[in-house]
Amino acid sequence: MLNATWLETFTTLCETGHFTRAAEHLNMTQPGVSQHLRKLEQQVGQALISRQGKSFTPTPAGEAVFSLGLSRRAEEKRLRDDIETDDRDVGAIHIACSGSFAMLLYPTLLPWMRAAPDLSVHLAAAPQADILSGLLEGRFDLGVLGANPDHPRLEAQHLGREELCLLLPADASDTPVTFADLEARGFIAHPDGYGYADDLLRLNYPDDYPGADQLSVRGSVNQIGQIPAPVAKGVGYTLLPRSGVEAFADKASLRVVQLPKRRWHELWLVMRRGRRLSARVRYARDIIEDAAGQLR
């Protein structure tokens, strides 16, 4: 790579067209300017100027190097402008969370996106392990995890917790729900559903629950927003965190069953430790905090 100091000296020399003026502009001596020119020519391997008495003109190689110098200067100016300008409505931000929380969060991000055309928001619904690795690799600015990762390169803020919910149709009987009642309806399965079943159903039906792989399955859906839909229409039951219930458009058609033993999932907002947060990341953090507040 060309020496940046020599390149800037040569660029200024071409702009001023005179060694003395270039030296004054750079607060150097004229022999210093000449020395930088010689060193740059040695690095390039070609003469960069053609002298005519006290004046000079750039050679073809000099024209190319001068063009590069102007380009480098413009790039550095853009970099300084980007660093000095911290506009919350400009730039990209990458957030990762569970699919259920993403359903709740995304609508709260849309007004900001609509008002800020130079903003680019990327929301990824991902498994916990992928969120953690993405934060460590710098692919995500913010992540919402179900536990404090307790990692030396990460810092975590407790947002609260959300209940794991057993969902039935709104017109289901208010009488206590037995495991046999659930089996008769059938489970609306989804990728996280089996883990939720082992978590909540085993806790409340220890004598009857046979394990997730033995459940009577009525259907399965892998689109998080559609999981409650069959239950709302009277087909089967399912298990979702509270955020998935709150984000469902027809939640009035669902009944959250109050089981004797309740289960909550923790919510932690996680980011890289020691990283200076841009204005847009700070604002996104506030939006995430507000979204989590809906679950209290």
UniProtKB/TrEMBL annotation:
Pfam families: HTH_1, LysR_substrate. Residues 2-59 form the HTH lysR-type domain. Keywords: DNA-binding, Transcription, Transcription regulation. The keyword Methyltransferase does not apply. One of its GO terms (molecular function) is DNA-binding transcription factor activity. PANTHER family: HTH-TYPE TRANSCRIPTIONAL REGULATOR, TRANSCRIPTIONAL REGULATOR LYSR FAMILY. This is LysR family transcriptional regulator.
